[in-house]
Write the structure tokens for this entry.
Amino acid sequence: MGATRREILAMGAGAAALGLLGRAARAEDENPAGAAPKPPARGSLPYRPVVTPNGAALPFREVGGAKVFHLVAEEVEHEFAPGLNGHCWGYNGRVHGPTIEAVEGDLVRIYVTNRLPVSTSVHWHGLYVPSGMDGVGGLSQRPIEPGETFKYEFTLRQHGTFMYHSHHDEMVQMAMGLMGMFVVHPRKQPAAAPDRDYALLLSEWALKPGTRRPDPNEMTDFNVLTMNARVFPGTEPLVAALGERVRIRIGNLSGMDHHPIHLHGTSFQTVETDGGVIPESARWPETTVLVPTGSTRTIEFVADNPGDWAMHCHMTHHVMTQMGHGIPNLIGVDPSEFDMELARHVPSLAAMGQMGLDDDAGDEAVIPPNSTPMIGGDGPHGYITMGGMFTVVKIRDRIDDTTARDWYRAPAGTQADVATAAELARDGIRAR
Ligand SMILES: [Cu+2]
């Protein structure tokens, strides 16, 4: 997705006249709703722009040698997935805020307008900035009062994956969504620059079923676990063509949790943190990277295995959405009579089935207002029993406009299915 109309308007007609909005407009043209995200063209940029699935880049204009950005902190009505919305706080009409992108050595000037009902500030997480630009309310600056616009200005002295977030009343303001990614490209592009470059920001929310205001008072039982502020099936897949080098920049600004992000079908190396590039001699292959809260981990791999591959937090309760943790354990119990009785009084509730949540999967009759199923969505082989912090990496021979919505078709002989009697007999398996 490209910049919203509102972001483009916020940059003013002058920037359009200078052709500086071309990038945002092009990005929108290239990625119509539902189409596969293509790597954006470099155009006149000295780097290949990052793709933020379900997100956008923050437009900028160049004034006297500085790149000028404008963030507007404000209330945003946000959709986590179809049917599940929240009254959140974000930037420029988005939750999370748009991704800021620039180049090592750039002088950036970032205006922050506060349209929230409370004071705020913005911290540039991981960036080497002058102390007075660090954005910690009370320590490095006075808070930005409602209606005020602050100016931050600094030269980017490093490259890598960073973040920005409120650093004033953090517990409340980050729980409400005030955060975004900040990508700084190297001044000199490396020869082995990736073909696909994605940015994902992890966060967590407490949104009681039937409510729309995230609860910042929650300390442990977060029930909406997000990638770029979306839960599966609302997460946009990541695509890559066979043989392409893929980079995924993963940031975590969850209030209380670290997330082990697991990728199926291949292995990767963690090449950068928000502290810098990891020397090649210090990298090792792995399939799960722990992204502690308040950090970024950048992984790279070659897309060498075609298919639809799950990428998700490996904490099983983090691939649930609005999971009720107070429910009794009914595994092995037949609750049908209780269910019928309960349904007479509270039609919107149902107990977890005796065989686990799969019993109720896809049963739309049990979903309360403003909520999405605890788990999943329709897949090519039935219901996908994961929700929350889950997305799909789609690797294909070639990528076209249908890749993002089409499911992988396994070639003959490569699809798990019921064993035939002849196969069981051949291999001496007694199933009964
Ligand atoms: Cu997690």
Remarks:
- Residues 225, 257, 259, 313, 315, 318, 389 surround copper (II) ion (CB under 6 Å).
- Residues 5-192 form a domain with the Immunoglobulin-like fold (CATH 2.60.40.420).
- The chain has a mean pLDDT of 86.
